[in-house]
């Protein structure tokens, strides 16, 4: 029997509630595909601060290092917002994790299922029978990790990219496009920023190895408009860390709910961390009403990208779609005439479909 070690890091807020449902779904897959998943739990973020005083305990890091993949929930919340930088969940855990494992490629699919077209704030004429694009965001470089300084009356953050960083993320985007609709849109701000001029230049260079893929360009400001105006025209976006952060939130909104969107962060060895695109939603934490679909679909991405279990991954996606088609909705995507269910109920329904 195949066996995989999964580091389970639920984190804060709704993290543990939605993680429970993802594990429930994985347990079903384990039976159906005769595969054993060993779950190794680690504390991270605010939960780890509260329990042992640091956001990314060594023990958690070890669990991740020994795993075949990391399934991550979400971290942070108002309780830990004012901690000094580095002691907080973002700079003390999430960004160091990304950097430690060099998860340079962040894949954020934005899918608006036909059955959820009404949950999108975009006009139905534009949504048609839904859309499906992928944001490929560079995750370990750019302005997030450049030199920074904050003084009393001045501050800066350096946005730097190198040729090799751009080439490796561009390859990920073109490879993804080859398996999809063979269209890459490079999003940058090369009319103003030097780092974007370089970004565009090396994306063009990589594109020469993919003559079947159509490449076009948008400045980030225009891109934010175009994905609202014509979301169905896009296939794969490739962009920098900061712009990808912005585009992926916008994509979540127009897809209906950020509670629906999974993501994968992958390094050069193919090791990956899988997490919902959304945050820890402290306002609804503990109430049992969060949408676990992003976490469940993150587990599906893990099966596909880290374990090569494509059929199992498709099973999960189909199960999610079927449950939505049957009219079940969590609060964030609820509409008149549908059946409102809570976190556990939708997790049960999805597992039953598998
Ligand atoms: C995300 C989040 C993070 C980011 C924050 C929490 C640092 O918004 O994963 O998109 O900006 O990358
Ligand atoms: Mn973000």
Can you describe what's shown?
The two termini are 20 Å apart. The protein is an alpha/beta fold and 354 residues long. The longest helix is centred in the N-terminal third of the chain and has 18 residues, at 15-32. It is globular and about 50 Å long. The protein has helices spanning 15-32, 46-52, 58-65, 89-100, 124-127, 163-178, 194-207, 220-229, 241-254, 293-305, 310-325, 343-353; strands at residues 2-11, 35-41, 69-74, 105-112, 131-138, 148-150, 155-157, 183-188, 214-219, 236-239, 262-266, 272-276, 328-329, 339-340. The protein has twelve helices and 14 strands. 40% of the residues lie in helices and 21% in strands. A hairpin with a 4-residue loop joins β6 and β7 (155-157). Manganese (II) ion (MN) binds at residues 245, 249.
Euclidean distance between termini CA atoms: 20 Å
Q: Could you tell me the number of beta strands?
A: 14
Q: How are the strands of the biggest sheet laid out side by side?
A: 2-1-3-12-11-4-5-10-8-9
Write out the distinct hetero groups bound to the structure.
Answer: 3-isopropylmalic acid, manganese (II) ion
Q: What is the C-level CATH assignment of the largest domain?
A: Alpha Beta
By helix and strand content, what is the structural category?
A: alpha/beta
CATH superfamily of the largest domain: Isopropylmalate Dehydrogenase
Biggest beta-sheet profile: 10 strands, mixed
Average of per-residue pLDDT values: 96
Briefly note the CATH topology name of the largest domain.
Isopropylmalate Dehydrogenase
Q: Percent helix among the residues?
A: 40-55%
